[in-house]
Amino acid sequence: MHIWIPIYDHSNDLRSEVALLKRFPFSIMVKMESKNLAEPITERMQTYFDINTNNELQIVGKLVKGHSKAGKLSLEDLGNCYISVCTKLGGTYVDSKCRPNEVPSWTLSQIDN
User: Fold this and answer.
1) d(C-alpha 5, C-alpha 60), whole Å
2) What would the DSSP string read from start to end of 17-41?
3) What mean pLDDT do residues 92-112 have?
4) Distances (CA, A) of 18 to 10, 56, 82, 98, 110
5) Which of 105, 112, 113 is nearest to 5 (CA)?
6) Helix, strand, coil shares, percent, the chain, to 5
7) Spatial separation of the C-alpha atoms in residues 3 and 83, rounded to whole Å
8) Residue 44 vs residues 16, 76, 96: alpha-carbon distances, Å
């Protein structure tokens, strides 16, 4: 599973900006909830910065199948699952404008089979 979060569009110097952003310990947290699960699954994703084909800078989260609780489940196991994501900078949750939060600022979406 991959999650892409666009940061901003069409920068003039993306390579330098990616190099700078890689110095910060950003991570994406994912939470999966479904009636098929006894309790929600919350995990830290492998997180990195990337430039897509439209020259947009984005932060990408990836669950590694062999190392993830959720990666071991099929879409049938998850059922009609709700997925929420939030970002962290080091040990601190941050909102969409990178302001510190004491609690996660979850963004909700849904997996459709």
Assistant:
1) 6
2) HHHHHTTS-EEEEEEEE-TTSSS-E
3) 83
4) 13, 11, 30, 16, 29
5) 105
6) 15, 45, 40
7) 10
8) 26, 22, 17
Question: What does the pLDDT look like over 41-54, one tens digit per residue?
Answer: 899 988 988 877 77
Dig out the tokens for 27 from the structure. Answer: 């991570």
Which tens digits make up the pLDDT trace of 48-73? 888 777 777 788 888 877 777 776 77
Mean pLDDT of the chain: 79
62: which strand partners? 2, 46
CA end-to-end span of the chain: 14
What does the alpha-carbon distance between residue 85 and residue 110 come to, in Å, rounded to a whole number? 11
Q: Are 58 and 5 spatial neighbours (Cβ–Cβ below 8 Å)?
A: yes
Q: How far apart are CA 85 and CA 58, in angstroms?
A: 15
φ and ψ of 52, to 5 deg: -85, 180
3 state DSSP class of 65: helix
